[in-house]
Amino acid sequence: MKRLFYLSLTLMFLFACGNSGEQGKAKTGTAVVKIGDVTITDDQIQDELANLPPNVKPMFAGKEGITKLVDELKKRETLYLEAKKAGLDKDPVYIKKVDDFKKGYLINSLISRNVGTEGIKVTPEEAKEYYDKNPKDFEVTEQRKASHILVKTEDEAKDVLAKIKKGEDFGKLAKETSIDKMSAEKNGDVGYFGKGQMVPEFDKAVFSMSKGEISAPVKSQFGYHIIKLTDIQPTKKLEFENSKAMIMQFLTQEKQKKSFETYMSQVEKGYTITVDQKVLDDFVNKHMGVKPEVGAGALPPDHGAPPPQPAPDKK
Fold this sequence. Notes:
Layout: H1 2-17, E1 31-35, E2 38-41, H2 42-51, H3 62-85, H4 92-114, H5 124-133, E3 139-140, E4 143-151, H6 154-165, H7 170-177, H8 181-184, E5 189-194, H9 200-206, E6 218-220, E7 223-233, E8 236-237, H10 240-268, H11 277-288
Antiparallel strand pairs: 1-2, 3-8, 4-5, 4-7, 6-7
């Protein structure tokens, strides 16, 4: 079953990526398969073998594999001819998809030819300069680690807190009483988090506490929390060596973007390009569901009514 599944995927790949017997460059080589007036030549088979993705190539190695590939190509060409016989090549959706593909392929070819990336390099020195000039980009803000016991009522929370003050184990109480079952399994531990990542009440309490401190009951939308702050990791800066690869990738993309924009600007100079802003605005408003503004010279529905007055200040 698995083997058949892979063969089906390969067949779909050949359908998607291959040229039909009637398309592409002029055929060369000796005919191996004939389907009516269409032929599949040995040169075509060689091209198909060369263009198979690495993970698929082993399936078509050796005599048996090549025979399978030829069978797949035969199926592809036969189905292509059958689709044309059924008139599917005249379908407007098909024609549009083909046109879109041609347009995209030509654009990509143009960009590849004129906006080459081979000469775009970023040096470690450039990366270091960016690192030094943008220190905020490499800061990991303060992280705090906490455990909590969540209960439904304030009385329950006060009871839990009293037990903790008498020396009962926080983690044991969390497992026994907390309605947050996920953290209860870990003795109430909710892990590390930055400011603003928790619900406001929980966040405010945690970031006003000292390490090791246990809070009074804190009410939130989920119930009442007893919170224990277990660790504080202060804001720190990532080391350059740990960030260098990421910076170089980012700067490379920025250079590629700039190269494309320069090329695009040059191309646009050869064309007269206009944008009808009013038509565009009307389209955007319609798309966004915004009601059109009252036209020039038209009267609003409440014309003649006195303008709304501000409410008097209540002294």
